[in-house]
Amino acid sequence: MLLIAGVNMPVLRDSSSCRLPTNIIYVVLISDFDFHLPEELIAQEPLVSRSSSRMLYLRREGGHHEDRAFSELPSLLRTGDLIVLNNSRVFPARLLGFRAGVHAQPVSQRNPAAGEFLRSQVEVLLTRRLDEWEWTALVRPGRKIGVGEIIHFGESELEAEVIARADFGERTLRFKPVADFFEAVERLGHVPLPPYIHRADRPEDRERYQTVYARTNATGSIAAPTAGLHFTPETLSEMRGRGIEMAEITLHVGLGTFQPVRVENIEEHRMHTEPFFISEESAQKINQALEEKRRVVAVGTTVVRTLEYAARSSSRNETPHVAAGAGENDIFIYPGFQFRAVGAMLTNFHLPKSTLLMLVSAFAGRERILRAYEHAVRENFFLRSLRVSGFLVLLLVFTVFSSSEKSRFVPCRPPGTSTSP
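User: That's the sequence. What structure does it adopt?
Assistant: Structure tokens below.
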């Protein structure tokens, strides 16, 4: 876990024509976000206590850093800060089933492979609900599951037909109506652990892969908003006692959060959409904090992306305003992005070349983030702090420029370049 205090100043790839720091960059390549992560530092088991992780506190001024503990977080925040949490609840979205063999050749002595084809397991990861009975999903083995195929789950307690191919290698599934779809999924499904966890899911993962503030009526994530997994009721109570305000938003974590970047120039990357919701009450709290120049602290990249997406229509010359309501979030934040709503961030350490690493680099500066990662790897932060249900090891807290401070930094860019993605 890492706590960084400083200003948002991403680094130029080529700053020879500009002597002052700037938020504008020329070219952003995926190779700029690579670092060495030894596999043995990726913990396979959770910590006994949610809040017992270590934390690295990095100050921008001079690049000074201190080794801290997550339990110190409340004391590092300010009275009047507004903490924004993602209350989305994870459901066991990984289903294991068998195909009906709609397009399979008949099983016979001459064709015994057809029987093995029908008996082989099909893995379905539900990624997004389209309507009451239709979902997009990742299906394995995808090449062998064509449109029109029927997949049975359990003792045919759930049945789905593949009705279309979708973007990003997904399939569209239509489930046969049942009395209680989510009850069946909760019973038959598995927690979709990240691919770098080399073990099967266990019953206890269902509790450890939820934040303590996840709400049943906000079920919809296929992966946890992991920055919140270290919070305990005691942590939240201590923050309230220190005069720290809280608000909740909902963003259902899907492919947009963790899909890999497959292009060298990251500006060509296209994000997968994820549904979000901001209540009128939360929007009011957030906007009041912004108007009063109080710090908005986003717990996790999902909150960052939601708030910045909701504030995107605000003029650069006015106080940012977050709109209430529901929507589809496909915002891609990388160095050069101009933050409007978020003044501080609590987040994880992220994998090399990931969109999440690009987001925190936009917030703190790529070189500063990579130096922090090098320190964390060297000090085995990953090994001793990661938890199977979230891997919360990085805490970033930044201050934003006041109006007078902003005037000291002059962005420079060549003709035809953009100031934001």
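The chain has two domains: 2-90+207-406, 94-188.
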